[in-house]
Every structure is written in C-alpha cells, then in structure tokens.
Amino acid sequence: MQLTCVGVQAETCDVTRFTFMADAQPDFIPGQFISLKVPIGAQTSVRAYSLSSTPDDSRLQLAIKRVEGGRVSNHLLDQLKMGDRLEALAPAGEFHSQLAGDQPWLLLAAGCGITPLFSMLKDRLRREPDADIVLMFSVRSEADKIFALELEHLARRYPHFQLHWLLSGEGDRLGEAQLQAVGDLASRSVMICGPEGYMVSAQTLAQQLGASKVHCEAFHAAATAAAVGAAEAAQGHTLSVDGVELPILPGQTVLDSLEAGGIPIFAACRTGVCGSCKCQGEKDKLQSSSVFGLTEEEIEQGTFLACSSTVTGDMTLELDD
Amino acid sequence: MFCVQCEQTIQTPAGNGCAYTAGMCGKTAEISDLQDVLVYLLQGVSAYAHLARQYDIVDAEVDAYVPQAFFSTLTNVNFDAKRLVAYTERAMALRNRMKDAYLAACTQALATAETPLGAGQFELSVDKAAMLARAPETMVNRGLSEVGEDIMGLRLLCLYGLKGVAAYLEHARVLGQQSRDLFGEFHRIMARLGEDPSEMGELLELSMAIGMVNYGVMELLDRGETDTFGHPEPAKVNMKPVAGKAILVSGHDLIDLQHILEQTQGKGINVYTHGEMLPAHAYPELGHKFPHLVGNYGTAWQHQQKEFANFPGAIVMTSNCLIDPEPGRGIEGYGDRLFTRSIVGWPGVTHLEGEDFSAVIDCALAQEGFKYDEIPHYTTTGFARNALMAAAPAVIDQVKAGNIKHFFLLGGCDGDKAERNYYTQFAAQAPQDTLILTLACGKFKFNDLEFGEINGIPRFLDVGQCNDAYSAIQLALALAEAFECGVNDLPLSMVLSWFEQKAIAILLTLLALGVKDIRVGPTVPAFLTDNLVAALNEQFGLRLITTVEQDLNDILAA
C-alpha cells in the first residue's frame, strides 16, 4: 500500500498528527495499526502505528510520538512533510473493537496509547450513539492532551460517553478510587493502551475490582508491540533482513517480528517441529526453545527456527531459501 | 447500446465503449438507445433551425429546447425512459414546425428548399417501441466501418464537446442569458454533425468552432451568475453538519438553490450545498445573504450513494451527476427523499417542475435532521473573476519578488478511479512557492488539505464550478497582460481531470484559444485513437498525465 502524506499537524509538543491518502483505501477494524516502511539512509525501518482515524474517514490518520533517541519517530516528526510518500503494510492487529465486543466499554489510555482507542470510540459512537463508554485518559499535563478538541466534543454530544482526564503531573493517577467510581466494572469490556508499566498496573487494578474482560495492547504479543509506536521505548532490539530493519521486543519470536514487518516467511507448524521457518542468524545472539531437525553443524553456523527463537541483541539474519 | 462518452466507459483490448446490457454509469441499454434516437432527432431540429435562419426565422422555443434536451443525454443526468420519449415527441413536433417554417419561407422567396442530409430526414412515429427499433440507425458510432476509427473519434469529440456546450447553454438560459448568435452557431454545428461529416480537416475545424462557441457561452453564463447573484466574494465554508432539519442541494443550478433558500427562510431548516454547488456560498445573493445556508455536506458526486444514504433530510438534484438512489449492497436507499429538477430524472424519483419547493420542505421536516453539530472543518471558495482580479496586483508583486514561482490550474471532474489520486498527490507535492487554482468537483480530491499562504496570498484558490472556467481564463489573460507575454509564456500549467462532456467542451475552448501544453487525466478519452492523441499532442502539446514526480519535474524545469 502506498501512502501520500497530505497533512502534518502538531498535536502537542512531542506528538504530531499525520494524515495520509492511501492509493487504495484499506479496510480495517478500529483499533488496528499499519506498519510504515521508513527509509532512513540506506536502510528501511518498519514501524507500526495505530490508526486514529475510522474506516469511514476518507483519509488515514496517525498520531506519532517523538521517542527520545528513537531513530524512526524522530525522523518522521522532523522530516515527513506534505506530499511525501511512504510504503505501508496492510492494517493488522488483534486489539480492536471486535475484541472489545458490544457491551459497555471502559477505555483506559495513557499518552499516545489513546490512538487505537480514539478510533474505536469514534467508530462505535457513530454507529451506536447511545453506547455506554467511559474513557479515562492519563496525560502529563494540560499541554499533553491529545485529541482534546474532538474528545471534548464527543463528550458533549453523546450523553452516554464519559470522558475523564487524569493529569499525572498534578498527581492525578489512575487508581482504585477512579475505577470504583465507574461502577458495573464486571459488565464492561476494559481496553487498555499505554506504556507497559501503566498497562500492567491498570490491568491488575481492573481485575482486582471485578473486571473480567480486560485486554491490553499487548507489548509482548506479535506485531502489536510496536502498534503504539512504543517499540523504540520498550528496550527491544532490531532485526536486519535484506536491508530492512525491524523492531523485536524482549520475548517476541523472530517469526512474529518478521511477520509484523511484512517480511514473507513460510511457517507451517509454528511450534518448532516442521523446520519450515529455518533462518540464518548469529548464534551468540539467539535463544531457542527448539532446534528440532537442525544438525549440530547448522546450529553452530547460526541456523535457527524463527518460530522458536528470541534474540538478546541486534541481529542480522538471512531467510533460508 | 453503444456509448463511449464518459471516462468510466468500458475499455477492453477488443474495443472501447459500453455496449452490453448497461453502461458503467448505470444507464440501461434501453435508455442509451432512446438517447441516441433523441440526439439524432435533435440534430434534425437543428438542421431546420439552421436553414430557417437564412430567412431570419428564429424560434426561441427551438433555440432553448434543443440544448436542453441534448443536456438530458449527458452522463449521469436522465435515466427515465418516459421522459426521454416525451422529449423525443416534443423534438419531433419542433422539427416539423421548423421545417414547415423554412419551407414556407422558401416558397415565399421563390427559392428552392434545401433538403438536409442524414438527421434532417429522419422520420419516426414517436413511441418507445418504435424508437428502440430505430436505434441502430442512430447509434453514435454509425458508419464506423466506412470512415474508420480516427474519423469516428473526431466525430465523437465534436458530438460530446457540443453536448457539453448544450449543458452550459441551458445553465445560462435558466439565468435569463441567451444569445441568438450563439444558438445559431450551436445549430450550425449540431446540424452538420447530423450529416456525418467525414473529412478530418472539417471535423478539426468543427471541434475548434465548438471550443469558441463554448467560450461565448461561458461568458454568457458568467454574466448570468454575476448579474443575478453578484460577484463571488471568498467565503469560508463549514464542511461538517450542524444540528437541525436539513435540505441538500446538488448539481449546478444556483437559481434552484436561491428558490430553496428563500422558501426555507424562518422554517428552521438548514440548507447544505453538495458537490458542484459548493461555490454558491461565495455569492452575495446566496451564501452571504442566507445564514441558513450553513455549509457543504459530502464530497464529489461518486460518493453520493453512501453520503446521501446518511443525510437525514431531503435532497434536490438540480443537474448532473445523479447515480442510482437505490444501490443495494447494504446501502440504504434514499429515492423517497430525493427530488430531481430540470432535465434530471430517475424512474420513481419525484420530479419537480416550477418554482414551488414545498414538497422538498415537507420532506425535510418529516426527516430526523442532524441531531448534533460536528466539529467544524472549513474550506474556502469564491476566488472567481473579480476576487482574482482584486488579488492580481499583489500576486504580480509576489511573482516579481520571486516568492511565487509557478501557478497550477488543477481542476476538472472527480471520479471513482484510483488513478485520480494523482491529483491529490500533485496538490500535496506542489512546491511551497507555487499557487494552486482549482475549479469543478475535482477539487474534492484535495480541498481538505492545508496549503498555507505566501505573504498573505492563499496558496489554494477555489475559482468555483466547472461553469466558472471563464474566470480562470480571464485571470490567465490578465496575468499575460501584466507580464506583457502570451498565456503560453506564463509560469502557468494546466493539469486537468475529465469525466464527462462538459470537461470536453472546456478543453476544446482552451485549445481553440491557443492554450498549449495542457495535461489531461486520468486516462485518454476512450473515443480518441492513438493517431488522434498524437495529432493533438503535435498541434497543441496536449498530453496525458504521467507520474506526479515526472510531471512536476517537467513543468518546473521548463
């Protein structure tokens, strides 16, 4: 999919909203992400960002946060301008409105984690104006409010949508009192997106208070790791394959990373048995739970099974033909 | 059926044109055949109207009727068989009346009456079955095997260009603007096309004559609009709905919009423009006068099925482009709250004659209306002739200071093909020291973008409807005069998108005025052969768009 950037707008001091036209408007489920292929110098990096637009919108929109030291996010925020074109992979991801279902929602967002939830929220309210939705949105300060105008507008317009801002800089954090005030937590689908620490504590808290259907934009799951543009912040590593650099997070398998980056790889059993996902990497950076079917010599030379291997450092690999 | 008049027509290695059970626009083979018979008969009416003018016999009803009925066969205008048959009946009556008048004048002058060839001799007992039986004789590609593809292509270029002229004649007429001379020239060309001319030189001359008559008609139309509604003054238009009952007005006829605005005053109904009606917001007697013209709803015509289905009010289609209001495919139909006007028609959809819009108002009041305001999003329109001329000195200063390097006229029709993304990309990639002028519904490909300004001059200037091409031409002439050069020497490039026959008419006007190096897309008209495209390129520098990067490089390097 080819994207043309048709709009660049600063949202806060470190978040920019980018608008794109796709060569063919893709279908997606609100909450899903797209992966941008970003050429920087001789290398192309792949990063996934959640869509903040809805499938009904004529343009695609992303809100991208500048990550300190992050090569790709800094490049995009500093360099990407109207008229520039980027290649992107089709929308994907498991954290979406269908997963959330049609019961009342409690949306818990922190910072740029609002993006998938914003798409889900707009889409559901458009389809179902009386939907019961509570959004608790944690940001550092007034100046860090993302999508503030639209969110306030939705809160005015839809009587059953409640918006609560939590300003962490003023000591206002998500806690038991806030969640208890929501009420009927057990009947709500709780969707959480934000930095990992936030998600872990929010999930624990929600479950302790009786929520049973709780989903996080899982940082350890395939692909979704980078979905909120947080891969760079999650202390992962990179895989380099055919000049393309992909993020890989702690615990994420090489196979998941390759698939998230749109690298074609055949993986039949996905459990370390069939040998179809055999690759060539760097032996001392690999941790494999299965080497089934590989010879000692192959293992010594760095051959491994992508479905059963994680990495301990940045690694270059070749796909086995 | 055989129809190749619009950009979405079927193109296969076996041949171009819609020739099966229905056209890509949704018109059935039956409608297409009825239209062919009607057009052929209208050529016969023009034949006698032309001959009668030798004796100074001018029938105002005939002058008005031929373009009006011809307009009904333009893409996405009239799909109603009953009305097409009725138009044909009327055409036959007028043809006979003109013929009688001409023969009587010849008798009185003791002159031998001429018998026009082809269409002028066409006899028909008008009913639907007879029309369909005679359709093969009147198909627009009749005689292809005798004349070959190149001549046929030129005939169709002329026929479709003249159809665009007919549409503009009708738009001007409803504003009280008519010209005996322009009607005369229209009949002359229409009559000649009914004789199936086969010489390339003559057909090229006819195409240029069509361009020039259209230039006159556009001037007439410009006068009609500005005399009636004032000179457009740039206006910010909200592109999002506001709470309340609603009427949506689409098409090009500003006078219908005026009636609706007058009749809805104080009734608690908000009126919205759609598509080509957007520039109405800039007219002093429309947008600036009636605060309940609250904004524009939706985008270009090809999205109407989804957008109209979601519009909670009455919808009025004053001219093209109309498509099937009961599309199925999970989209809710809206034919019961749609109204057609003038020559527009769809079977089963209420057609309104006269100036009473109470049925529309009742319908709007019975609908739910918009329950909430959306967050406003604005575009600016109304940089027509006067506004552009007022800005011209400042623009010229910026050009001389080197702050404005180039002008692009990026406009024309919108359509469904993915290739039309070219125009969005072009607008987005145009360098910051360039200005983008636009007109017609092609603007919806990029009028939501933020272009910024150059020292106070907006980089994006929406001139108006396709009808307002005259304004863009006047600006080009003014700039040429200011810089003491020809239009072709200006740092001005035209990158046009076409879909239907009005765009063909405007293109012929630009060519006839000597404008060179126009780029056209998204595809070559399917009726033009490779030879014709090569000839147009050689004579006028007319070329097809390539890629945005290539075209921008070529234009800015020149």
UniProtKB/TrEMBL annotation, chain A:
Keywords: 2Fe-2S, FAD, Flavoprotein, Iron, Iron-sulfur, Metal-binding, Oxidoreductase, Ubiquinone. CDD domains: fer2 (cd00207). Its cofactor is FAD; [2Fe-2S] cluster. It holds the Pfam family NAD_binding_1. Residues 235-321 form the 2Fe-2S ferredoxin-type domain. Residues 1-98 form the FAD-binding FR-type domain. PANTHER family: NADH OXIDOREDUCTASE HCR (PTHR47354). In the N-terminal section; belongs to the FAD-binding oxidoreductase type 6 family. This is Hybrid-cluster NAD(P)-dependent oxidoreductase. The lineage of its organism: Bacteria, Pseudomonadati, Pseudomonadota, Gammaproteobacteria, Alteromonadales.
From TrEMBL, chain B:
Its cofactor is [2Fe-2S] cluster; hybrid [4Fe-2O-2S] cluster. Hybrid [4Fe-2O-2S] cluster binds at residues 252, 276, 321, 413, 441, 466, 500, 502. [2Fe-2S] cluster binds at residues 3, 6, 18, 25. The gene is hcp. It is found in: Cytoplasm. Gene3D superfamilies: 1.20.1270.20, 3.40.50.2030. The keyword DNA repair does not apply. The keyword Metal-binding applies. Its EC number is 1.7.99.1. It is an enzyme of class 1 (oxidoreductase). Belongs to the HCP family. Binds 1 [2Fe-2S] cluster. Its main location: cytoplasm. This is Hydroxylamine reductase.
